[in-house]
Amino acid sequence: MKVLVLGATGGTGSHVLRVALSAGHDVTVLVRNASSLDVTEGVRVLTGDATSAEDVRAAVVGQDAVLNAIGSRNMRHPVEVEVGRALLPAMHDAGVDRLVVCSAFGVGESQTDANTFQKMFFHTVLGKVYAAKDVADAEVRESGLDWTLVYPTRLTDDPATGSLATGARLPQGAGSHVTRADVARFMLAQLTDATWSRKIVVVTGAAD
Length: 208
What we know:
The chain is an alpha/beta fold.
C-alpha cells in the first residue's frame, strides 16, 4: 500500500514510519528537514510544510492512505487546524479516502473520563493545543473521508508491549499510559481493519 506519513520526525510519527516500512508499505513522508528523519532508506522523502496546501497536495497524489501523527511542538501556536485544512481538501481532490489521525485522550468528549488532575492539565498547560485538536478533529469527522481518530493516553518512549486496551471510551481498569511504539502499530493496523472506521478510539496500555 502507498502510504503518506505526516509527522515522521516526531515521537510517535518516527515509530509510524518504521512500522510502515517494516510492514512492506511504499512510504512517503513530508518533512521540513530530511536530516531529522531516523530512517531514510526505502522512504520517498518530500521536503515541505504540512500546513502548506501546495506541499500537501503534491505529497497526497498517488497515495492509498494517510497516517497523520503531527503534534504541535509550540504549545502557543498549535498547527493541527492548519494541517487539517491543507490535508482534507488535498485528499478529496486526489481521491485518497483512508485517513488515520493520532490525536489525544482528553480532547472533546473523551475528557469526561479524565480525572481531576488530568482535566486541569488539559485546560492549562495543553489548553491551546487541545482546543486546536478539538477543532481539527471535528473537521475530520465532517470530511466525508474514511477516517479513524486515535486518542492515546499519556505517551511514553518505552518499548512496545503488544498489549493494548481500546474502546470508544477509556477502558475500565486500563493503564494510564501507552507507548508510542504500540500506538504506531495500532495506527498502521487501521489501514486494513475497518473496526474503527469513522470512529474515535481511545488507546491505552494494559492495567498498570
